[in-house]
Amino acid sequence: MGAVVSCIESCLRTIGRTIMAVINGIGSIIMAIVNGIINFLDIIVGCLTCNTCGGRRHRTAGTTNGRRGFGRRRHVGTTSTI
Description:
- Helix content is 57%, strand content 5%.
- 0% of the residues are buried.
- By secondary structure, it is mainly alpha-helical.
- It has a two-stranded antiparallel ribbon.
- The protein has a domain of 51 residues.
- It is elongated and about 85 Å long.
């Protein structure tokens, strides 16, 4: 009799775990969709407020007085090693 109860208990536990796995998968899919919508709206708001989308890109690295390539040059190996 104990073996039959153990077998039924095992079957019910397996069915419960399967249902929970399906519910967890559905929840993950819904979270992915919501996160995608939030990211999309964040991009649209960024474009409307001139945050990062389009327009002029400001590049100041490596320039000196508006001229390119005339910054301080660092040469490797010019100092004497001991």
